[in-house]
From TrEMBL:
This is 2-C-methyl-D-erythritol 4-phosphate cytidylyltransferase. The gene is ispD. It catalyses: 2-C-methyl-D-erythritol 4-phosphate + CTP + H(+) = 4-CDP-2-C-methyl-D-erythritol + diphosphate. Catalyzes the formation of 4-diphosphocytidyl-2-C-methyl-D-erythritol from CTP and 2-C-methyl-D-erythritol 4-phosphate (MEP). The record marks R157, K211 as: Positions MEP for the nucleophilic attack. GO terms for biological process: isopentenyl diphosphate biosynthetic process, methylerythritol 4-phosphate pathway. Pathway: Isoprenoid biosynthesis; isopentenyl diphosphate biosynthesis via DXP pathway; isopentenyl diphosphate from 1-deoxy-D-xylulose 5-phosphate: step 2/6.
Length: 229
């Protein structure tokens, strides 16, 4: 089976509030996106890496992607939301994908993905008919807020997991899941798959696989890269 990494990288990084989109900010001397691409480049089980950037992207071409040439495809078909960017990328690769091929959707903004976590995801799901995601058990106590931003209840955190990426699904199932209306409830691929009635599997990942969202996350990513597990 083919295994394709699909990297949505068409966001503007509004919460990061930096001059350039966060996927291009320097991290340990290289743009964030290069680290993310590298994780899939060096993994022998990944056949191709498809990066989805914005049609208005002015940064991608500023960097040298030679190191990834044997696997990398860049598509300028990013959409208004992450889900749209993923759907557009999926549609573009559909002609060369069998329904049973794997698509691993991974945030460009998660540059610290460890090879061991990627391997565990691939191995755990290898025979699964649908797929699943990397996730970590929730560490904090959870509160549900009411109208006045007061606690309505404490939500038991047993059995609660925080979704990460990669989110790995069979191409046929994922295309179907993302073919309908993409409302705000579709915050990740798994939620779209769940709407079809499937139960994606949770594969234990690591807190090191953080998403860079706010400036402090970039500092933490620097530390993680400087201190390999
Ligand atoms: N993404 C995308 N297309 C969009 C929005 C997001 O491809 N229209 C990508 C981002 O580039 C990122 C990933 O989806 O790699 C996760 O999204 P997020 O962390 O929310 O990034 P941004 O949307 O760029 O940031 P923000 O929400 O703070 O604006
Ligand atoms: Mg966003």
């Amino acid at each position: 089976e083919q295994r394709i990494a699909l990297l949505p990288a068409a966001g503007s990084g509004s919460r990061m509030a930096s001059a350039i989109p966060k996927q291009y900010l320097p991290l340990a001397g290289q743009p964030v996106l290069r680290h993310t691409v590298q994780a899939f480049m060096i993994h022998p089980a990944i056949d191709r890496i498809v990066v989805v950037i914005s049609p208005e992207d002015e940064w991608f071409d500023e960097y040298d992607w030679q190191f990834a040439q044997s696997k990398l495809t860049v598509l300028r078909c990013g959409g208004a939301s992450r889900a749209e960017s993923v759907r557009n990328g999926l549609q573009a690769i559909a002609p060369v994908m069998a329904d049973s091929s794997w698509v691993l959707v991974h945030d460009a903004a998660r540059p610290c993905l460890a090879q061991a976590d990627l391997s565990r995801l691939l191995q755990t799901l290898a025979d699964d008919p649908v797929g699943g995601i990397l996730a970590v058990p929730v560490a904090d106590t959870l509160k549900r807020a009411g109208e006045g931003q007061q606690v309505v209840e404490t939500v038991p955190r047993d059995g609660m997991w925080q979704a990460q990426t990669p989110q790995m699904f069979r191409h046929g199932v994922l295309s179907k899941a993302l073919s309908g209306e993409l409302d705000a409830g579709v915050t990740d691929e798994a939620s779209a798959i769940e709407r079809l009635g499937y139960a994606p599997r949770l594969v234990a990942g690591s807190a090191r696989n953080l998403k860079i969202t706010f400036p402090a996350d970039l500092a933490l990513a620097e530390w993680i890269i400087a201190h390999p597990a």
